[in-house]
Amino acid sequence: MTSLLRGVYDEGAEAARKEGYDMARFRKRPVVPEASRWWKNGDHPDDGSVDVETGGWTFLTEGKVVRRYRHPDVPSGEVCKQCGYIMHEHGWIDTPEGGHTVCPGDWIITGVKGEFYPIKDDIFRERTYANVLD
Ligand SMILES: [Zn+2]
Asked: How much distance in Å is there from the Cα of 5 to the middle of ligand 1?
């Protein structure tokens, strides 16, 4: 039972790796949440980011789901205590509980009402396994 269900998870991850992105559907009762892994601006499938050329430079527009990180009290060059990347490499997401920092490598889960939540990779994997296996 356990190995079969782990196989379901691994197949999704393997398919995502083959296609070059970290996105797959993960089983969780009673709903099947959609989750995608975020590494940089524009990574979320609903971000809608596009390249814009201005004065010889190409810019990727800010994601609609995961926006650019900005905080008046935290310099963009400061190193994150959680992931080790500088804050400039982070994203920002609005959740029903308020704004939240997104570290590179965090998962973005789409809730049943279409709301978005960031979740750390290790916790995401723990919960995915726990919910599938219990
Ligand atoms: Zn971080």
From this structure: 31
